[in-house]
Amino acid sequence: MSAAVSVIIPVYNKERYLSRCIESVLNQTFHDFELILVDDGSEDNSLNICKKYEEVNNHIVVIHQDNQGVSVARNNGIKAAIGEYILFVDADDYLNEDMIEKMYQSAKDQCVNLVICGYNLIMNNKVKKCSEKTGLYSMSDFMGIMARWRVDPLIGSPCNKLIKRRIILDNMLTYVPNTIYAEDYNFNISLFMHIDKLYVIDNCLYNYDLAVSGSLTKKNTINPNILWKNQTRVLNNILELEKKYERESILSSQFFAEAVTLNFSRRALGGLEEYKEWRDEVLNNLRLKQYIIETKGIAGGGFESFAYKIFRISVMLGFDNLVFYICKIMMNIIYCIKQ
Question: 73, 80, 262, 318: which sits with the fewest CB atoms below 10 Å from its CB?
Answer without folding.
Answer: 318
